[in-house]
Amino acid sequence: MLAERGPAALSARRLVREVGASTMAVYTHFGSMPALVREVIREGFARFMERLKKVRTDDEDPVAELFALCRVYREFAVAEPHVYAVLFGGSGLAGFELDDSDRDMGVYVLRVPRDAIVRAMALGRFREADSWLVVRQLWCLLHGLSDLERTGYLRADHLGGGVGLGDFLELVLRDFAVGAGDTVEAATASLAESAGRNS
Amino acid sequence: MLAERGPAALSARRLVREVGASTMAVYTHFGSMPALVREVIREGFARFMERLKKVRTDDEDPVAELFALCRVYREFAVAEPHVYAVLFGGSGLAGFELDDSDRDMGVYVLRVPRDAIVRAMALGRFREADSWLVVRQLWCLLHGLSDLERTGYLRADHLGGGVGLGDFLELVLRDFAVGAGDTVEAATASLAESAGRNS
DNA sequence: TATTAACCATAACAGCGTTACGCTGCTCCT
DNA sequence: AGGAGCAGCGTAACGCTGTTATGGTTAATA
Fold it and tell me: Where is the DNA-binding region (chains A, B) (predicted)?
């Protein structure tokens, strides 16, 4: 219901009407609406991780692998914006607020891209630095892009002729890699390398 | 009320109780709660612009000016997180949803940093490129950082010893400038240059 | 002065999350 | 086999939310 009809549709009464039960069902099984939402976002994080795990590791070109991961990140946010909003956007759904343990699940997914970043550093593609800082830097970029797109702030018709949001992401990723130490040429090559091979 | 007590506190009844009126006051003056929230965010955008306008232009070092603007951006998000959440986070407050004209006000503030970026390109500090694309790239970074900080995902104790969120922003800004074409040395120098002179 | 418009207090409605109460039907122990 | 205990859930209610129809008060206008 959250994914398809949005946060407003996810109410206790609508929910129990759907399954043909009374409001009590929510409280015997979950305790409260926030607790129910918590289970929903558990499922959301699982779906997210599942998508990320599908990206093949690439020891020869970890930067291309990283780019593929970034595409999957945005694609998830675009595919399930309402879920993404609750997972990372701090959307207050039925009084639900993110918990420390919830956020730990969010931070946990960073392990995947960090791994690629570490390998990019080992290969000399990225400047030697704290990989956790770098992956968070990338996170800011990805969350910012995904969230601004979700809220309608970032739209294709703002980007000038012929530039779509997919192209914009490419641009952002290339400049990120350059900022991390890669050359413009190598980054552009890895971008092309990673283009077709998501999933 | 939004700024101090959060979105849950901004209800029609609480509001009219505060000013000693009945709920009708909301509807005669604003029409609906979403419309009232719209006026609130108008005020929010105004406050935001006011802060940005306080940053002095610097034709000799537009990159330093840009960095100063970025600090102000984050400082606003930290100072008024609830307001920021409604302005840019797509927080659904009392059924309020961002309008196209609302978003135009948000996009309008981009003019200020874009101006600095154009000058940085003219001086050869930044690679020649579509300045609107570059400023949106920076926006993703700033919004991502501010929003992840607001939702509690980005915390000082995740960044390793001694690195605060202010330091993290510096790092992010330096790498952004490098990604945009600046040298590491010049970017670091502008960072130091812009350090003390906000407001 | 008479008329009209704006303004707002009252009371109500639907929907929200939540909870006290009571019934039903299952399980387990003797 | 039979009775005790209890988990699960339907009913109805409470207080909260945004919203609105009604009607009375006030102020400005003709």
Answer: 11-30
